[in-house]
Amino acid sequence: MMDPLQILPMEDWPLLRDTLKRDWPMYAYHYNWVKTAIKWRKKEPELEHEIYCPNGKYDSGVFVGILNSGFFVTTVFAFKESKDVLKQAINETKIIKWDKGVLFNSVHEHFVDVVEEFLDKIKKRKNIQIIKDVTNYFFKSKEDCAKQELPKIPEECEIKHLNLSDIRLIHSIWPHRDLERPETSEKYLENFIRLNRGVGLFLKKNGRLVSWVLYGELGHLGMLQTVDEHKRKGYGKIVTQVLSKELADEEGLDSVLFVVDKNVASEKLFESLNYKRVATTFWFKTEPFTE
Fold it and tell me: Kind of pairing, strands 102-108 and 71-78?
């Protein structure tokens, strides 16, 4: 029996991307995911980055994107009227590789019930447990990002682009790193710097990285962190403003980001920068079940 999800030909990826402009910015990060996938596959054709659609056709309003790099990252999408199509597709497909840790990233509130029901059914069969995180999706237009005035950089610091040598520190304090298989989550983060970009605030006296933000596969500002001894100095706000303006000026990109639910301090930070909350999203990570 043929799998209900078939690979979407790459020439149709831009057509799928453009369908996601609907109800903007409700699905902006899904639009960004496809846009990023196009860019990454052009840069690295051998990258395991695929888009699957019912019968290999983008016009169903459903897709499942796969990035097999470290984590087996799964991005699912359906317009509200297409939820039943998504439900059938993910319940019958064999494309998900459960032997690796699977991350369902930023599942939109409009179809999260379909994904939760699917994971609840499969967890016993695959002997896995599900770790769930709830986040709020925030958006700021490229026009607003471009016109914002950049903050003054503290005299003791300088702004630089991140490189792969910075990954070890970034990964070491990333709260969502894989503690059992750290090489998988480290490889996942490497994509963001190698194929996208990130900015960091460095101390001039010793070149130490003290605050950073990465541009992720959802076209999002992510992994925003400041080392403990330099918190509450406004460094996180600085790197966020620098990267969001850079993306708007150089690539014409809106800024999206995700804040863990009830993280009041972070929400206040982004609201002060005129980000608007759009929706609630859910992240599901699978792990082998242990007694």
Answer: parallel
